[in-house]
Amino acid sequence: MRPQSYPGENFVAAIKAITFDLWDTMIADETDEPKRAAQGLSPKPRARRELMHAALMRHGAIDYDTLAMAYDVTDAAFNKVWKGHSFTWTVATRLSVMLDGLGRALPENEFSAVVAATENMEGELPPDPIPGIEAALDTLSARYKLCVVSDALVSPGRVLRGMLAHHGLEGYFSGFVFSDEIDCSKPDPRMFHEAADQLGIALESMVHIGDRDHNDIKGPQALGMKAVLFTAVQDADKNNTSADAICTDHADLVGTIEQLDKGE
Fold first, then answer.
1. Nearest of 41, 1, 250, 34 to residue 129 by alpha carbon
2. From residue 3, how far is each of 19, 63, 154, 251 by CA, in Å?
3. Average pLDDT, stretch 82-106?
4. What distance in Å separates the CA atoms of residue 260 and residue 14, rounded to the nearest whole number?
5. pLDDT at residue 37 tops 60
6. Reduced to 3 DSSP states, what percent helix, strand and coil does the chain have, rounded to the nearest 5?
7. Helix (H) or strand (E) holding 256
8. What's CA 23's distance to the chain center, in Å?
9. Contacts of 166 (CB under 8 A, 6+ apart)
10. How open is the CA angle 23-68-215, to the nearest 5 degrees?
């Protein structure tokens, strides 16, 4: 429910728009795993490896542990590129790199099927929203333009949009920036410039909310934005952050933004 009071009629808002990280800021990562276990499904990391293993076995034997090791090495390379170069390989790229390393290949239609199944896995049994996020978005969307700015690590932007729609959250946003769709990831300035362009708002009139200091705080601050560190799910950076504010619960988010808006 929206609060009944807000700064008086002479108040001029400094903040015009808010951008939100997705994972562990709006959606709690890994909350789908208990659901998967209840349905007798493998955890996602193993299920992804099982998909590729089954596909390869149709064309020649390969030991599962060998496949899993190749997958692990490829994941490590992905993380190096993501964290070191602000770029997220697509699932197709990751699996192609892995197959090249193994000296194996799949027919195009079978490879595409494995890619699609890997990309869609989280969308078929979505993780849960973080408590209080919908109420916060309901209030904030009445005052500011909102945009999602998220890295796409496995699930691409189209799946993440579907996940937000599944939870009734997509309609609060006027823009969406996903790393797989613009060929870079946070804290690359292009992520936030794209959000500003979609919203028609200057960067210095925007605030970003996210859970990682390097990606979600340092990146936007370097562009003149304000940034809020959200720590309800993971708080590894709470004692080493340059954030303009720290928020520990979505119930406090509206108040946190109000204080920033008033320069407090």
1. 250
2. 21, 59, 37, 12
3. 97
4. 8
5. yes
6. 50, 10, 40
7. helix 253-261
8. 4
9. 123, 126
10. 25
Q: Any idea where the domains of the chain sit in the sequence?
A: 17-31+126-261, 33-123
For residue 2, the model assigns a pLDDT of 37
- The span from the CA of 69 to the CA of 184, in Å, is 27
Residues in contact with 239: Cβ distance below 8 Å, sequence separation at least 6, in sequence order = none
Contact status, residue 209 vs residue 186, Cβ threshold 8 Å: no
Spatial contact of 18 and 148, defined as CB atoms under 8 Å apart: no
Confidence of residue 263 (pLDDT cuts 50, 70, 90): confident
Q: What is the pTM of this model?
A: 0.91
CATH label, 17-31+126-261, candidates 3.60.21.70, 3.40.50.1000, 3.40.50.2000, 3.40.50.2300: 3.40.50.1000
Q: DSSP states of 233-255 as a string?
A: S--TTTTS---SEEES-GGGHHH
Bridge partners (DSSP) of residue 150 are: 178
String of DSSP letters for 110-153:
HHHHHHHHHHHHHHHSPPPBPTTHHHHHHHHHTTSEEEEEE--S
Q: How confident is the model at residue 241 (pLDDT cuts 50, 70, 90)?
A: very high
Q: How many whole angstroms from its chain centre is CA 53?
A: 27
4-26 residue pLDDT tens? 344 444 444 589 999 999 999 99
Per-residue pLDDT reduced to its tens digit, 171-208: 999 999 999 999 999 999 999 999 999 999 999 999 99
